[in-house]
Write a structure and sequence with these properties.
Mean pLDDT: 89
Strand content: 15-25%
Shape: globular
Radius of gyration: 21 Å
Number of helices: 11
Low-confidence stretches: none
Largest sheet: 7 strands, antiparallel
Strand order of the largest sheet: 1-3-4-11-6-9-12
Order of helices and strands: EHEEEEEEEEEEHEHHHHHHHHH
Length: about 325
């Protein structure tokens, strides 16, 4: 039986991440309403098996990751608040959802977006385990303005279900990234957290269907060679610091969308992948250089990687060996 790649998303949770654990339905309703959105819980399965378990990761620039399980089959009615939207993904088990007049169901990888104040009805299997990402609307609206150069009028409303397999897989990668940082013992510095979460919010806006998606199909102002030179020079000079799409675009005097189009056209990649490659190449040069007493952790920090474990994983994926092996071989 093939392994479930979604289970790996939630690896790393520890006992200190438990925010709610209760066998009382009333207590679960009260506490989940405070943590996520107003809830109504109806037991469908065995009441004796009910055990609500809600785990949370560290807040990342306002984005909140959590997981939720009930131990028995339940039905939830959720009313999302106006100040955020909720993106949930099935990790294990099965769920059936009714939202915005539509119905869908699925197992691991089934993604649902709650983005309207209309009630959403969700039915979970006894073995259901879901991961939730709560995104403040202020971050979403600011990202749209950065992406397009215009502010939204009416609120962003997303299609409740995501059917594209590629988008689902990409979203799983974003969740892994958030988990890597959200589960660190120490909180990530605010500026770095904003950069990490920016790519996740941009993915929501650019890959998930919503009521403004058609505007992204319109041609962008074509940025030229001068903007590309400014962008690459800016990245090279500041690759050791947290770099956001917004900061790079602002340096070039263009929108984030124009910046993304420019890098895709000229380099065949995204700006942030270009940044990652620049950092990895800088790390490679340091690790193969002649400086004595240099450690892998020092190289990671000098090249803009905050997490040692993540740096090692990215380096190995790019160069086929751990950075410690490169350092030992010089």
């Amino acid at each position: 039986m093939p392994s479930n790649p979604w289970s790996a998303v939630v690896e790393g949770f520890r006992p200190e991440h438990v925010a709610i654990t209760t066998r009382s339905r009333d207590e679960a309703i009260a506490r989940l309403t405070g943590q996520l959105s107003p809830h109504r819980i109806t037991l469908i399965g065995e009441s004796d098996a009910f055990s609500a378990r809600f785990l949370t990761a560290n807040d990342l620039a306002g984005l909140q990751l959590s997981t939720l399980a009930f131990g028995t089959e339940v039905e939830l009615e959720i009313a999302t608040s106006d100040d955020h939207l909720l993106v949930t993904a099935q990790v294990e088990g099965h769920s059936a959802i009714a939202s915005q007049g539509l119905r869908a169901q699925g197992g691991p990888g089934f993604i649902v977006i709650d983005s309207t104040p209309q009630p959403v009805v969700k039915q979970f299997s006894a073995d259901s385990y879901r991961i939730n990402l709560r995104v403040p609307r202020t971050r979403l609206d600011d990202a749209w303005a950065s992406l397009t150069g215009t502010r939204v009028g009416a609120p962003l409303i997303f299609h409740p279900f995501v059917s594209d397999t590629g988008v689902r897989q990409h979203w799983r990668s974003h969740l892994r990234l958030l988990m890597d940082y959200g589960l660190q013992p120490d909180r990530v510095p605010a500026r770095q957290a904003e950069v990490i979460t920016e790519s996740v919010i941009m993915a929501l806006l650019m890959e998930f269907p919503h009521n403004y998606s058609r505007r992204l199909e319109a041609p962008t102002a074509r940025a030229g060679a001068h903007a590309l030179e400014k962008a690459t020079a800016f990245i090279d000079a500041l690759k050791h610091e947290p770099l956001s799409l917004e900061a790079i675009a602002r340096e070039c005097g263009i929108s984030v969308r124009s910046l993304c189009d420019l890098f895709r056209r000229e380099h065949g990649t995204s700006p942030m992948r270009y940044v990652a490659e620049a950092r990895l190449q800088a790390a490679r040069r340091l690790l193969t250089g002649r400086k004595e007493g240099l450690t892998v952790a020092e190289v990671a920090t000098a090249c803009g990687f905050s997490g040692f474990g993540r740096f090692s994983a990215l380096y190995r994926a790019r160069f086929g060996e751990l950075p410690s092996r490169t350092l030992a071989r010089r």
